[in-house]
Amino acid sequence: MEQRVSLITLGVSDLARARRFYEALGWQVGMAVDDEVVFFQLNGLILSLYPRAALARDAGVVDAGGWFAGITLAHNVRSEAEVDAVLSEAERAGGRVVKPASRAEWGGYSGYFADPDSHLWEVAHNPGFPIDAQGNTRLG
């Protein structure tokens, strides 16, 4: 697994309110999909705001106020095969695959693993978010 964080996704209780907050800080929306998700292009990575319940559902976990903290880290890769390889690598390293890789409703391919402290990582191939030669993920 290359040393890279591609996206930080914050699970939020009110997407519109969260968007207004970050915009009030002077952040510019790079991309938004209706009332489903908001992306901000940062220096070399992307911050996304996503409804908390939808984020838990996407990761295949229950948001019962327990170990799921409403945040995931994402590691984007260049191919679907690399998604599978990184999930296997994470498992060999002591992580736990919580959602095997599959086709995503947004058009890519992704799965999730939990690190030993249960922090969730999404491993994703998203053709709409290209990765440059330096390994930086960009909004398409």
What's a concise summary of this model?
The chain is α+β, with helices and mostly antiparallel strands and 140 residues long.
Kindly describe this structure.
With 140 residues, the protein is an alpha+beta fold. The chain has a single domain, classed as 2,3-Dihydroxybiphenyl 1,2-Dioxygenase, domain 1 (Roll). It is built from three helices and eight strands. It is globular and about 45 Å long. The two termini are 23 Å apart. The mean pLDDT is 91.
Any chance you could write out the topology, listing elements then pairs?
Elements: E1 7-12, H1 15-24, E2 31-33, E3 37-41, E4 46-51, H2 52-59, E5 71-76, H3 80-92, E6 96-103, E7 109-114, E8 120-125
Parallel strand pairs: 1-4, 5-8
Antiparallel strand pairs: 1-5, 2-3, 3-4, 6-7, 7-8
Provide keyphrases for this structure:
alpha+beta; eight-stranded mixed β-sheet; 2,3-Dihydroxybiphenyl 1,2-Dioxygenase, domain 1; globular; 3 helices; 140 residues
CATH architecture title: Roll
Distance between the ends: 23 Å
Overall shape: globular
| Strand tally | 8
Approximately how much helix is present in the residues?
10-25%
Report the order of strands and helices: EHEEEHEHEEE
Biggest sheet statistics: 8 strands, mixed
Strands of the widest sheet, in order across it, are 2-3-4-1-5-8-7-6
Low-confidence residue ranges = none
